[in-house]
Amino acid sequence: MFKKILVAIDGSKSSFNALDSAVTLAKQFNSELYLVSVVNTVNLPTNVGVSYVPGLTKDLRDSSKRELDKAAQIVSKTGLTYQTELLDGEPREELTIFPQENGIDLIVMGKTGTNALTRVFVGSVTRFVSEHSDINVLIVV
Amino acid sequence: MELSKQFKAKIYVVSVINVCVLPTNVGVSYAPKLEENIADDVHTDLAKAQQIVKDSGQDYEANLLSGEPREEIINFAKEKQIDLIVIGKSGTHALERLFTGSVTRYISEHSKTSILIVS
């Protein structure tokens, strides 16, 4: 039923809960896991006096990479087939386009993101993807 | 059902009769047959779903609730300690077929239960 399951990792606790659920599902359905993080390079402060912050993108990428590695570590212990993907861009769009292009059957996401505000509400990325993607979405609390 | 087979989960098939948005203020004070008609409709759909699950030989329970669908589903899931709500992406209205159904959106935001939105 689910051959390819994508898990969106943003470093939040919620996204690691999503990873747990995805691992459980993947074991049952012998699915391949896609662990995906998106470096949000769209919302960088480009207009705040400085024209360019060379280290910023790198910092963001490094921190995304760390979370992705952590997730990969968890999955590698389970013996499941998986691959990791570090994308660049607007998370909503990347997480809508990537699954389509890669024939994903199920997107698993945490309910809330990493911001204080989105911890209370449903993360905007989760909401966007659940509304704009044609692929089944599992939102894990 | 694919999921419940794999995990040997019990299926709760649930329909809600929406008695909250009945036109009670349109000249007639009460339309006695209306609620009954809606109930019949919902009942038919639920019976159809129930039959499908029954044929698969899985453990299930059918529930016909009545009230505001969003609230009823959230409360039901809480009371029965449901692990996963499976819900369609779009509803039955023409408009909702284009967008994500309002019930689906509401539940995905307000429920403390994980939810699988099926396109």
Describe this structure in words.
The complex is a heterodimer of chains A (141) and B (119). Chain A has 141 residues and is of the alpha/beta class. Chain A has a single domain (4-140), classed as 3-Layer(aba) Sandwich (Rossmann fold), CATH 3.40.50.620. Helices cover 46% and strands 23% of the residues of chain A. A five-stranded parallel β-sheet of chain A has the order 3-2-1-4-5, with helices on both faces. Chain A is globular. Chain B is of the alpha/beta class and 119 residues long. Chain B has two domains: 1-67, no CATH class; 82-119, no CATH class. Chain B has five helices and four strands, in the order αβαβαβααβ. Chain B has helices at residues 2-7, 32-55, 69-79, 94-98, 102-110, and strands spanning 11-18, 60-67, 84-88, 114-118. In chain B, the strands form two sheets. In chain B, strands 1-2 form a two-stranded parallel ribbon. In chain B, strands 3-4 form a two-stranded parallel sheet. In chain B, β1 (11-18), α2 (32-55) and β2 form a beta-alpha-beta unit. In chain B, α3 (69-79) runs parallel beside α5 (102-110).
Give the structure's gist in a few sentences.
The complex is a heterodimer of chains A (141) and B (119). Chain A has 141 residues and is of the alpha/beta class. Chain A has helices at 13-29, 54-76, 91-101, 116-120, 124-132, and strands spanning 4-8, 32-40, 82-89, 106-110, 136-140.
Name the helix and strand elements of chain B from N-terminus to C-terminus, one letter apiece.
HEHEHEHHE
CATH topology call of chain A: Rossmann fold
Continuous helix count of chain B: 5
Tally the structural domains of chain A: 1
Neighbour order of strands in the largest sheet of chain B: 1-2
